[in-house]
Amino acid sequence: MIDPFGRSITYLRISVTDRCDLRCAYCMAEDMTFLPKAQILSLEELERVAGAFIALGTRKIRLTGGEPLVRREVMTLFRALGQRIGPGDGRLDELTLTTNGTQLARFAEELAAAGVRRVNVSLDTLSAEKFAAITRWGRIEKTLDGIFAAKAAGLAVKINAVALKDINEHELDTMLAWCGEHGFDLCLIETMPMGEIGEDRTDQYLPLSLVRARLKQRWTLTETDYRTGGPARYYTVAETGRRIGFITPMTHNFCESCNRVRLTCTGMLYMCLGQDDQADLRRVLRAGGTDADLREAIEEAIGRKPKGHDFVIDRHHNRPAVARHMSVTGG
Ligand code: SAM
Ligand code: SF4
Fold first, then answer.
1. Which residue puts its alpha carbon closest to atom 8 of ligand 2?
2. Which residues does 213 contact at the CB level (< 8 Å), separation at least 6?
3. Which of 99, 104, 186, 311 has the fewest CB atoms within 10 Å, i.e. the most exposed one?
């Protein structure tokens, strides 16, 4: 599938649930209300939509959320999609997930058996107290156990950390060392203004250009052209032999190489994380649409993929630029 700006769309991210067992302060409000079950696509419906995408040339699928591993029976979906990994047309190159790691100790082996090779685990701090504060009630031990279970199961682990002013900004150096020690890549993310969180976001924003400049005082960072099919810019860290990535939606426009679209757990297809235009694939599914109808709806939507996003915090009203939460669209 080629969009109007000549970009080949080969990457689908699926949010399999809006629910989560944590409440990270930059992501959710403490008293989030979750969607009624009837609005959420069943695992069979998710598999059908994924199948239509794969038939149209999608090569990579990432399951995310909310927290993907809290969805009941989610392993059925991993196993079903895992069977579609393989060489040749109409097959997947990669199936992966983004998780907070709390359930990984339980599922790491099964994920590996289903064909998952890499996992992104979100961890913003190595301090138990800060972890509890950022996630509002999480216990860091669970996530750390999950990370090491994934490593033991042979999965490549990438740690995702949101750079937060005053909260973890002076710890990122230690995290880079820790990742190097355990053989993990690290990816730093700028906060994005998505969804009401009950707090002022401008207090949390830390530009990664500043973080990178600070890290360069201690580490030898060399820019590489390594890409994982995502928006991160990667540098090798000479001292550890690992990589560090920077995702900078606020300071750098990465849209020109965007190869992805996102499906929410309610079956809405968003062509851009930072725009509101969408296509309602649930309507097609529940109106008894055939696989051909589904493919047609997807192709029509790709034809509307916008050139790029335009995140700006509406400072006047202190409102997020995009009203829906990251947990709905899938980070
Ligand atoms: N629950 C899983 C997790 O935390 O990894 C998957 C979903 S979470 C929404 C995906 C990623 O989005 C996480 O790495 C999280 O830190 C990031 N994220 C959430 N809200 C964000 C925001 N407002 N700005 C930047 N990144 C955000
Ligand atoms: Fe949950 Fe992930 Fe959002 Fe944290 S970032 S609240 S773990 S969905």
1. 66
2. none
3. 311
Domain boundaries, the chain: 11-329
Pocket residue to mutate for ligand 1, from 162, 205, 206, 211, most atoms within 8 A of Cβ: 162
Q: Is the pTM of this model over 0.70?
A: yes
pLDDT tens-digit profile, the chain (331 residues):
999 999 999 999 999 999 999 999 999 999 999 999 999 999 999 999 999 999 999 999 999 999 999 999 999 999 999 999 999 999 999 999 999 999 999 999 999 999 999 999 999 999 999 999 999 999 999 999 999 999 999 999 999 999 999 999 999 999 999 999 999 999 999 988 777 777 777 678 899 999 999 999 999 999 998 877 667 899 999 999 999 999 987 665 677 888 999 999 999 999 988 788 899 999 999 999 999 999 999 999 999 988 887 655 444 455 566 667 776 666 6
User: Is 21 within 8 Å of 261 (Cβ atoms)?
Assistant: no
Query: DSSP characters for 164-201?
Result: BTTTTTTTHHHHHHHHHHHT-EEEEE----BS--SS-G
For residue 23, give the ligand 2 atom closest to its CA.
6
11-329: in CATH 3.20.20.70: yes
